[in-house]
Task: inverse folding
């Protein structure tokens, strides 16, 4: 089976590049959205996908969820159920971009790359993707955490996460929650990704506990939210009759370096400590130039 990691451009026709500077410009975040990100650590409600694109991704996801998919060995991680509670289920996998064309090509989707470039303040390079799926009635939690606590093997901290709803995501079916302003906190110890929602309190100081006021990020399918690598976030169980599926794209600004001589992702050749992150598995997605003349900047 073809490993799509070797294809560093659009492989299909699900997404396309804007045809004019005006079309590129229409994808830019407003100054108000950028200010919100800087103040609170996130910006939400950005349209990333149309209905046809969501449908294509859901069809691909249905295939990928089968452990017998012929490309299953290309996943960096594959957890049919990562929940620590046996009564709930959390499907979580990394590496879909290598296997299914739709999840490969979404990385080059201009509705994602243009805002990402603005928020990073430079060219956008791929880190890794994720799938998070909570079935109806017994979907598991994603416990409070900071993304960068899992990524310290790459420095400097110039990273960004884009969380894209593939279903309407609500408080009832386990939407994402953010702790506004927590992107200004120090790097916290890891307390587990799919376990106790209250464990985070064991590593917070009194000031952080007093500022711990989570807000729900409810999104219509096809819409996304961007967040800072230190922003504390998580999601509660899904006891609703509707499932909640999402895909996540993690990126960093071009120039980030490896801080480990070990493989940065399972099955990926190591990048020497101190060397720039690039090559087959960490492709450049967007260099900040739309068409031939328009520079995308903050």
Result:
């Amino acid at each position: 089976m073809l490993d799509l990691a070797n294809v560093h451009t659009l492989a299909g026709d699900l997404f396309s590049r804007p045809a004019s500077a005006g079309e590129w410009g229409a994808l830019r975040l407003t100054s108000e959205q950028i200010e919100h990100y800087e103040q609170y650590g996130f910006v939400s409600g950005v349209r990333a996908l149309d209905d046809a694109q969501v449908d294509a991704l859901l069809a691909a996801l249905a295939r990928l969820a089968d452990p017998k998919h012929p490309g299953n060995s290309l996943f960096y991680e594959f957890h049919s159920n990562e929940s620590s509670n046996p009564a709930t289920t959390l499907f979580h996998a990394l590496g879909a971009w290598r296997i299914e064309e739709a999840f490969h090509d979404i990385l080059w989707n201009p509705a994602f790359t243009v805002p990402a470039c603005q928020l990073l303040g430079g060219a956008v390079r791929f880190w890794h993707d994720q799938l998070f799926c909570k079935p109806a009635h017994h979907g598991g939690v994603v416990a409070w955490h900071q993304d960068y606590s899992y990524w310290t093997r790459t420095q400097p901290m110039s990273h960004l996460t884009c969380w894209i709803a593939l279903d309407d995501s609500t408080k009832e079916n386990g939407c994402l929650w953010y702790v506004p302003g927590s992107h200004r906190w120090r790097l916290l110890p890891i307390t587990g990704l799919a376990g106790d929602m209250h464990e985070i309190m064991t590593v917070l100081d009194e000031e952080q506990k007093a500022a711990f006021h989570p807000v729900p990020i409810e999104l219509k399918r096809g819409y996304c939210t961007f967040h800072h690598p230190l922003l504390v976030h998580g999601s509660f169980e899904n006891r609703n009759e509707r499932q909640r599926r999402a895909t996540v794209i993690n990126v960093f600004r071009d120039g980030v370096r490896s801080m480990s001589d070990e493989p940065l992702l399972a099955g990926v050749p190591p990048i020497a400590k101190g060397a720039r992150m690039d090559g087959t598995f960490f492709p450049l997605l967007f260099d900040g130039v739309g068409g031939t003349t328009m520079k995308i900047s903050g």
